[in-house]
Design brief:
The longest helix is centred in the N-terminal third of the chain and has 14 residues, at 70-83. 34% of the residues lie in helices and 21% in strands. By secondary structure, it is of the alpha+beta class. The protein has helices at 3-9, 20-28, 31-37, 54-65, 70-83, 127-137, 145-154, 165-177, 245-250, 253-262, 267-280; strands at residues 46-50, 104-109, 115-121, 142-144, 192-197, 203-209, 230-233, 237-243, 290-296, 301-305, 311-316, 319-324, 326-327. The strands form two sheets. It has an eight-stranded mixed β-sheet. Bound molecules: aspartic acid.
């Protein structure tokens, strides 16, 4: 099976001052668009995350409300999902690769465009925290595999068994046929991407995943790739992605969403156009899911996906809501 066919057939699983790019955006809009989409009030702090992950956004909100930084909020927010064994697409309990090994990808990015990432990390429950250490304690951005694992042990991270009995049994079942079939919105609970603005108005983002279930050993998706699975620009906004990583990498999706916001699009419009780019490179009826979420500097949020079923959590002073995303296809 060639690479393209493999991907097609694989299991799928935002007080005060308005920034210059956002003023440019105001100028770029028609009157109609502006009244419909431009937020009059700056909202902060605020956190947004892919999927319906109330415990994760609750944790992040608690940090933000206590004057914590957006960086701490996104790290500790996604850690809730990494530790949750019932979430089979992130951290401990994640579905393994086709050889039965759970391999994790994660990245984090701060207000100064500093970033850190780990890819193909095994035996560590919190890849996002290792990624933060890569950002803060090394001159590098990405550490991979065994090197990343050794780096983590050196910092005191504990070795753990990530493959739970439930995920092992499902893998054994899968092995009987070893067929790669699209499963749209697998468990409604895929990669966790989280974006936040703190009380100082600074942005940060985090993204963590066990990747595509039953992937070829060594496969790395979009989630730990800065610009693909996550991008943060403290002047403009931030974006993150979930879904088939290969498609997000091909379009440098999260960077694209942020650049579209820089050009004047709302978060919703930017996510929609990024999905549209992916559609244009595929058939009209793609059998895979992609979901983008975005947060701009003013605290406006938005999301867009291909198939219905994707949602995102938002927590701000206005409440804690799960928001079904608009989608390209209707069913
Ligand atoms: N984006 C992740 C990856 O391709 C998987 C997902 O979100 O389902 O590894």
């Amino acid at each position: 099976m060639n690479r393209r066919k493999f991907i097609e057939k694989s299991t799928l699983s935002t007080a005060g001052i308005i920034s210059a790019p956002l003023l440019a955006r105001e100028r770029a809009y028609s009157e109609n668009d502006r009244t419909k989409t431009f937020a009059k009030d700056v909202v902060r702090p605020i956190v947004i995350a892919t999927w319906d992950v109330p415990n994760a956004t609750e944790k992040a909100w608690h940090i933000l409300r206590s004057d914590g930084s957006s960086l701490d909020a996104v790290e500790q927010g996604v850690m809730i999902e990494e530790a949750d064994e019932n979430n089979q697409s992130v951290g401990k309990g994640g579905r393994p690769d086709r050889d039965g090994n759970v391999t994790l990808d994660a990245c984090i990015m701060d207000k100064d465009s500093k970033c850190g990432s780990v890819v193909y990390l095994q035996n560590i429950v919190h890849p996002i925290s290792v990624a933060r250490k890569v950002m803060e304690e090394t001159p590098h951005v990405i550490l991979a595999g065994r090197g990343a694992e050794q780096f983590a042990y050196g910092l005191g991270f504990k070795k753990d068994k990530l493959l739970t009995e439930k995920s092992r049994q499902e893998w054994l079942q899968w092995k009987k046929t070893a067929r790669y079939e699209p499963v749209i919105n697998i468990e409604n609970h895929d990669t966790i991407g989280m974006l936040a603005i703190d009380g100082n108005g600074d942005l940060a983002g985090a993204c963590t995943t066990s990747g595509m279930a039953y992937k070829i050993a060594g496969r790395v998706g979009d989630s730990p790739i800065i610009g693909a699975g996550l991008f943060v620009d403290n002047e403009v906004g931030a974006a993150t992605a979930t879904g088939v990583g290969e498609e997000v990498i091909r379009t440098v999706g999260s960077f694209l969403v942020v650049e579209l916001m820089r050009q004047g699009k709302t978060p919703h419009q930017a996510c929609k156009e990024a999905v549209q780019r992916i559609i244009e490179k595929n058939s009209d009826q793609p059998d895979f899911q992609i979901g983008f979420i975005a947060l701009n500097k003013n605290g406006e949020t938005g999301g867009y996906c291909i198939h219905p079923g994707f949602s995102y959590r938002v927590y701000s002073k206005d409440g804690h809501t799960n928001n079904p995303s608009d989608s390209y296809l209707n069913k």
